Amino acid sequence: MASSLALWAQLLLLVLGPVASASPVAVDSAQQALQPPEPQFRPRKLNGKFLHITDFHPDPFYKVHSSTKSGIACHRRTGVAGTYGAETTRCDSPFALVNATFDWLAENIKDDIDFVVWTGDSARHDSDEKHPRTAAEVLDTNQMMADKFIETFSSDQQSLDVPVIPTLGNNDFLPHNIFYPGPNKWTRKFSEIWHRFIPEVQRHSFTHGGWFWVEVIPDQLAVFSLNTMYFFDRNAGVDGCANPSEPGYEHMDWLRVQLQLLRERGMKAILIGHVPPARTSGKQNWDETCWQKYTLWMRKYRDVVIGSIYGHMNIDHFLLQDTKKIDITLGAGELSARDALEEGTEFSTLSREDYLQELREEWSDLPGSALKPLIGSGAGAAEADASGKKRKKKKDKYTKIGGEYAERYALSLVSPSIVPNYFPTVRVIEYNITGLEDAALWTDSFDGAEPAILDLDNWEDEEEDSSEDQLQELKRHIGAEGKKGKNKKKGKKGKGKKPKKPKDPNFVVPKDPPKGSTPGPAYYPQPFTFTGYTQYFANLTYINNDISAPPDLAESRWRDRDHSDEEPKHSALKPREFKFEVEYSTFDDEVYKLEDMTVMSYLKLAYKMSLEEDPDKGKDKGKGKALEEEDEPGAADDEDEDVADVESQKKKKKKVKNQIWLHFLRNAFVRTVPEDELRKMA
């Protein structure tokens, strides 16, 4: 504990030292060092729930009532930066938001979950030239975040009550996005920071490459922390997953071997990472060779993998990986170019809208002949027998989607963030624990020994990249840029013929699930299947209480956007009580109507959103207020309103024909985009 306290003191010195005038600790009581909650002990049981939380981006320089303008980053001048953050801006999170979030989790979530997945980006963006990021600051904020998880999810400040599984984000090191092959100084430092989270038997794997896994339910369920930095298309320090000398290749090989081991042990797996495998016609997050292998692994280990969970993009959405697009013959030099997806402060609402529209276009190519008859049916394409075995009846009808359980596709879930690019958000996912009531529970094996204190004074002297290394990296980067330019797709058919077998003679194609086996939990409801989730958000516009709402709209409902040029309505801070509230739940969402979180459920949802008109229009009358019945801003309530105005309102409503897609967009931006703008997007 002494080392932990030393690190807290070190951060205060960092903030209060040479930049005292800009320090939020010096000028703002709400922006203070992170404080642990009071410990409480309660007996533990398996709940069938887990927490996903991502992208905190804590900022030690955040100043309340500072300017939210780009480049100032809520660090100085006067503006409407709120006590708990500046929603819908490019500013990062104040410590007040981090503290309040953990306090709320301790009071409302802690005792109801089995484990926590924390998908990276626990340092601020480098968005203020007057306060450039340093290695010491990045490591300190990550250490503080690790301490907060330990303090919040422990009863006695010694043993964790539940496992916490972290993963590296692209802002958790310097320079951001560039992560070199391991072992490197960052994997070594994070091995120390996360020593409470990484099992002893996994320490070598993590130090070597930044990846590991945890048995969150012993002998039953494992969570894999992937180092997506080695797959990330914007990481110029590596080059994909095709070359055996690349860490991405090694990472994929490690994942294949570990998933095979779990199959042999009869276990299931959840995969987590920071950067999701987003891939549309014009944009992508991962190097194509990594996407190809990952999608192949998802196909081959569909009996093992329950689902994949990511952060990074700050918007609420999901991805369907089509295994029909797998081409294991692709070499690194034969790939068509796509633009890399931007993230964080660089990823505007407009570019996100373009990305979501491209996703919808991809979904419009889903096999309608197989999916159209299923709209309105249950979670699966057909009933299974009592044992859950696949039935051969009507097999041909579902061939285009990979059989009765849509095994052609794999699903990835992407959650919105804590950093208030929109509103701060957390997600609690529930999974089936039928028959697991007597399962062994995870226990913390921490022996009380603390790792060596981080030697921050000598950090800058740890130059692991020699001049020769830098020269080779520069050549690699130039070569990669040239490759992208030369191999742009000119048409659908591409260039030349593809070879008939993989380029790499050592490439191992995993075996399919055993013949006749039950579909995996991602495809057929059974123990460990994700059943649904509840998403919580904090309406900072209302909580901060710094901006006046329009007179015709209640403050509790007002969520507008750009206020960078405004002054706060109070000279003194008058925030309301901080709390998260339910944004929506898949268990009772009358628009999504998800039976569960199987691939088939999401495939049907994607198909319905791709249609020009809402396929559910007019159905389920009396089950609650339908989305198309919601009042539009400015809609008249007077029964004596002029007939022409009524007709005008009707025409406005007819402009958006697919209300499911509109609902998806509303959720994607965590209800921060005004309704009229949403309708323009839709």
From TrEMBL:
Primary localization: membrane
Stretches with biased composition (Basic and acidic residues): 472-484, 616-627
Keyword set includes Transmembrane: yes
Subcellular location: Vacuole membrane
Family, similarity comment: Belongs to the endopolyphosphatase PPN1 family.
EC class name: hydrolase
Pfam family, one: Metallophos
Entry keyword set: Glycoprotein, Hydrolase, Membrane, Signal, Signal-anchor, Transmembrane, Transmembrane helix, Vacuole
Record EC number: 3.6.1.10
Native source organism of the sequence: Hapsidospora chrysogenum (strain ATCC 11550 / CBS 779.69 / DSM 880 / IAM 14645 / JCM 23072 / IMI 49137) (Acremonium chrysogenum)
An example Gene Ontology molecular-function term: endopolyphosphatase activity
Annotated function: Catalyzes the hydrolysis of inorganic polyphosphate (polyP) chains of many hundreds of phosphate residues into shorter lengths.
Bias-annotated ranges (Acidic residues): 460-471, 628-645
Ranges of residues in domain Calcineurin-like phosphoesterase: 49-312
Alphabetical list of SUPFAM superfamilies matching this protein: Metallo-dependent phosphatases
InterPro entries on file: ASMase/PPN1_MPP, Calcineurin-like_PHP, EndopolyPtase_N1, Metallo-depent_PP-like
The protein, known as: Endopolyphosphatase
